[in-house]
Structure formats: C-alpha cells, structure tokens
C-alpha cells in the first residue's frame, strides 16, 4: 500500500507553490515526444486497467481473499485486463536462502485464475513499514531474519504512516539499504529472492512482469540522497538477477513514495535492461494526493490543493518517464471511501488524467469495503461502477489519444508496422456499439464479442494514423 499523505505533507506546500494555481494544465501526452509503450507478444500497446489484489495479502499467509469467481466478476463487470498481485518477501524466503515453493504454488494457482480471463498479472513484492517485525506487527513485507532494528524502540502510530518515523523502523530500512554499512547481504538476498520468483513464473503466460518493490522508503536518506545513489543501483542489481531467469517479462520500478505520490519530482536514476532486443523497464509511480487520502475529501479548499497536485503529477511523472526512456503505468491510485465528499469526481478526474496520458492503472484495491469495488455484502460500490468505463485494452500501434465523455469513446493511434492483431476495445454493455473510423470505407472491419464485451477492429495498415469513435 502507500506511504500516505501524513508523511507527504512536508512536500505539499512546495507542491502547491510549484503548481502556482489549480488551473495549471499539463500538455496532452501526444503533444510531447511519445513515450515507449508496454506491449504484448503481438506488438500491440497494452492499456492496463486493473485492481490491486489485495491488502488482505499482507497477512501471515501472504495470500489474498479472492476466489476464482471474484476474478471472473472483475473481468466481466469492470473489464479489467490486468492485476497488480501482491506477494511478500517473508513468504517467498522465510529463512535465509530457503524459498517456500508451496507458497509460490498457491500464488501460481491464483495467477492461473487471471490467465483464464485473459488478464495480465504484475507480481508486486509488497512492503509497508518494512516488515511485521520492525514494529510490533504494524508492517508487512520483510522476513524477521532480515529485520535489524538494533534494539531501538517502536510504537505503532495513528495514522499508521507515522510509524515510518519510529526509530526501529528507520533503522530497519537503514540496515536494509546498508546505510549503516553493517548488512550488505540483505539487498543480495532480496535480489536472489526475485530471481527465484522469476524462475518460477518466467514461462507463465499470464505473468506480464514484476514490480520490484512497493513504495520504497530510504530510512534516514531521502530524495536525492536516496533515489539516485541508493535506489537506482539496487534496482539495477535486482533487474540483473531477474534477467538471469527471465529475459522477456517487463520489470516495473517505482520512485520513492514520499513526494512523487503527491506529484513532486523524482530523482530516480536510469535502470538499464541487459536483455537483448530492447529494454522492458516500466516507470510505475503511484498517485495519492494530500487531501483525499486517510479519510479526506475532494471538495472546497481540499479540492483546490488536489487539483494542483494533479497538475504537478501530470507534468513531473511523464517527464521522469521520458528521462528514463520508459513507459509509464500508474501502479496505485484511490484512497477514498465511496461516501467521502467528491469521491466520484476524484475518481473521474484521475481516470481522465490516465486517458490524457494514454496510461494504464491499477486501482487500490479489490478488498471488500467502502473504498473497494464491492462492499461488505458483495454489492458493487461507486468505484466499481465508475471504473467500468469503455477503454482500449490493446492498440495495434502507438496511441495518440484516448478520451471518454458522455457515452463516446475516441481512440487515436499511429500504425506500427508488422502488427496483424486487432485493436481491442472494452465496453460495459453487451449491446454492440456504433462505430466510425477515419480509414477509407471498405478498408477496415470490426467484430463484436458480446460475451467479453470486446470490439475488435482491424484497421487499414496502409493508413499511417487512425481515429475510432464509438458511441
């Protein structure tokens, strides 16, 4: 989950000053140099819409609450084509150098449920507050044997994110990152654990890639003292380890959470991909603006602040992706209960931001409750209904425009030579949509799948650009 806004408040005044005004508008994605895109094995750009599965996976078993039927429902009702699936280091490597393959078998069984629905799985090595042994069970992620607090005290705090500042938690991170100079072996173990996971899932067709660490936190080193000299070399070590086992799947790297979650710039350095055939590294920031998280709202003065952070995020995160030469994907977003003031507007605004940037996302989360997609009785929430909007699942080229308004979906793209597979668009209704395309009549065709609610479009490959409008 996220390092939320209580820690981030130290960045909010600076964020607001940088934004200048809540009416600042970032340029559309197609107005800048096009970013690389995440592609499938047919060369199509993937626009990943999915959920995080799930906060319940942070418990002792490391497994989420879901059943196969829940996965079927998500694909059918929300149209998700992907999932950010949480795993934990403590479950992968319960003892130094000893891996729990029975746990990975259970993960694989659940991954197969997503594969049955044609969904792409991103395995996320999740952590919050380092691990459960850093502060009396308050965190998740690291195993006990890799937790060195050097006897410092810790009291779980409310809000929970303040626990990051407890002495024992700071020391646990400092020892992991070897800021103390005493435990260089910990990062080596972490990279080896990822290599083992990659060996297990390299040939699993449902697995698209690996999110190397959830919301990295630098302990007593932050911002430019952490992301450049510590985090980027760590990612490079893990990528190199993964590539010894899996040369094809995508690797997702996150900036530190503190600051970038609210739209502040990141100083994360470039991570090189040693695989032949071009890099498959994805920049995967989160978005939790101050004012909406931890029981906040999206109205009044809070809305003005959040809109400023929208503008910052739209400027700074794509700029970082361009600097890193990587596609961008929004790995976590959400944070409001459905009854919070402005919850529907906030959700609609970040969905529009994602469309403007031709960027995929993973909503936090699918856990039952007010901020999930089903309530405690299994009924769809406001968020399930809002997320279930038309979108292009796969685009046979480079997307230049995605927009949805008043029941009309418009998608533009540039032809990418050599792709024979169709562009696919998902719709919440089983009724065939009305379609227009800028290609010459008779040079393109469509096919409607009423079961999956998917429209397949074979555009004219001789045309350099295409724009489809679907009502």
What's a concise summary of this model?
With 471 residues, the chain is an alpha/beta fold. The chain has helices at 5-19, 68-78, 89-92, 101-116, 167-176, 185-201, 227-243, 300-324, 343-356, 382-387; strands at residues 45-46, 49-53, 82-87, 120-125, 207-211, 250-253, 281-283, 286-287, 329-334, 360-364, 391-395, 397-405, 408-415, 423-426, 435-437, 445-449, 454-458, 465-470.
Number of strands: 18
Mean residue pLDDT: 93
- Radius of gyration based on Cα positions: 21 Å
| Major sheet: arrangement of strands | 7-6-5-4-3-2-10-9-8
Sketch the major β-sheet: 9 strands, parallel
Principal-axes geometry comes out as globular
Strand composition percent: 15-25%
SSE sequence, one letter per element: HEEHEHHEHHEHEEEHEHEHEEEEEEEE
CATH homologous superfamily (4th level) name of the largest domain: Glycosidases
Q: Approximately how much helix is present in the residues? A: 25-40%
Domains (count): 2
Task: Characterize the structure shown.
The radius of gyration is 21 Å and the shape is globular. It folds into 2 domains: 384 residues, Glycosidases (TIM Barrel); 74 residues, Immunoglobulin-like (Sandwich). A 9-stranded parallel beta sheet has the order 7-6-5-4-3-2-10-9-8. Strands 1-11-14-17-16 form a 5-stranded antiparallel beta sheet, with no helix packed on it. A 4-stranded antiparallel beta sheet has the order 12-13-18-15. The longest helix is centred in the middle third of the chain and has 25 residues. Helix 6 runs parallel beside helix 7. It has 10 helices and 18 strands. With 471 residues, the chain is α/β, with parallel strands linked by helices. Helices cover 29% and strands 19% of the residues.
